[in-house]
Amino acid sequence: xxxxxxxxxxxxxxxxxxxxxxxxxxxxxxxxxxxxxxxxxxxxxxxxxxxxxxxxxxxxxxxxxxxxxxxxxxxxxxxxxxxxxxxxxxxxxxxxxxxxxxxxxxxxxxxxxxxxxxxxxxxxxxxxxxxxxxxxxxxxxxxxxxxxxxxxxxxxxxxxxxxxxxxxxxxxxxxxxxxxxxxxxxxxxxxxxxxxxxxxxxxxxxxxxxxxxxxxxxxxxxxxxxxxxxxxxxxxxxxxxxxxxxxxxxxxxxxxxxxxxxxxxxxxxxxxxxxxxxxxxx
Length: 282
Known about the structure:
- It contains 4 helices and no strands.
- By secondary structure, the chain is mainly alpha-helical.
- It has one domain.
């Protein structure tokens, strides 16, 4: 081959090699860029899914707490309802006996059977009319005794009416306190129910959001797998096509050594003829 021909071939082959390198670099940069994007996307979606799971668990814990509070409110409402029923029964018993005493069908000594001491906060009026009357009958005689007995009877009877009235007033007070307590429970329960409904709604929204993120993640992973497989095939194809014979490899090795030696000699030669720079004198 003549010199001009070999020169053109040398330049052509080198240009083709550099063009191939640029093409391969473009392919590598493109795959690196999209694969880096898919990795960032995958990590971002995993973070969003973890946050959604954490928020869902937080909502679930709050819902359970509110459900427990609502159950307590219902239990207290049941206790108040039972207490109100007992008050109604007690009130009706007192009113019935009050009417009987007004009609004269209830003897004063029978008041003890009502057991008023069971009502909290009440000062029990001890009505031992039977014992007092017996003592009066035994010790007193004549008109003075009759008058004394009448006074004691009326006094004890008045005390019995007063005790009934105190019990009725007490029942009204207890009923008012129970009503106020029930209003507070109702307000707290309504607030808890509203909060629970809002949390349940948010929980459903978070569940849908998590499902959406998981779907996006699955799609992203599928795309990433396709890119990885294609990139792996490109690398494998490029690697398998680059084959150099042993003879050529030995020639290249020796020429590289010669080129390095020549480059070293050239550098040393240039350094010998490089003018020295004299330092400034004072």
